[in-house]
Amino acid sequence: MPSVIRIPTEPTPPHLVKPKITLHRLVLKANRLMQRIAEEEKRYDQMLKKPLSEIVILTAPVRWGVDSKCVRWNGQTFYFTPEQASIVRCLRAEYEKGTPRVKVERLKQLAGSDADELPNIFRVSKERHPAIGVMIHLQDGWWWIGEAA
Q: What are phi and psi of 140, to 5 degrees?
């Protein structure tokens, strides 16, 4: 049997090695990456242009109790009477729709309360309810849940 003689070979010089990716393909990949970055930047810009009320809906740490009688709002817990809770439920429904401001007349229809009584409903021992000014706001005949105007 003839013996096989192996001749040692030197590694191929780097300038003769065919690259795994061509410069053209590298430029195409870089362009696609730049397009994706530009799309993400546009998306973030659009998000920043949204009204604060939409952003609050997504980011506020809120927990609603059964029948809205207890609400955890930004680290504070508020308790409501059944009458107050009916109004809070109406405000919450509008808040979650993205239209948080409700006219007193509309709130009266939704909650079934007299418009003149609404501010008095949120009184605790002749004091304003602690949620007023923190979670629930009222101004010029408008009521809303969320950030102050």
A: 50, 40
Closest CA to 136 of 97, 90, 83: 90
Write out pLDDT tens, residues 45-92: 776 776 655 554 444 478 888 788 888 888 888 998 888 888 888 888
CB of 84 closer than 8 Å to CB of 121: yes
H or E element, residue 106:
helix 104-111
Q: Are 71 and 63 in contact (CB under 8 A)?
A: yes
Which residues have C-beta within 8 Å of that of residue 139, sequence separation ≥ 6?
A: 149
Query: How many Å apart are CA 55 and CA 48, to the nearest integer?
Result: 9
Amino acid in position 21 = I
Q: Take residue 62 and report the two structure tokens written for it.
A: 């809120």
Indicate the domain borders of the chain: 19-49, 55-145
Concatenated DSSP letters of 47-101: HHTS-HHHHHHHH--EEE-GGGSEEEETTEEEE--HHHHHHHHHHHHHHHHT---
pTM: 0.54
Interval 108-147: pLDDT, tens = 777 666 556 667 778 777 788 898 888 898 888 888 888 7
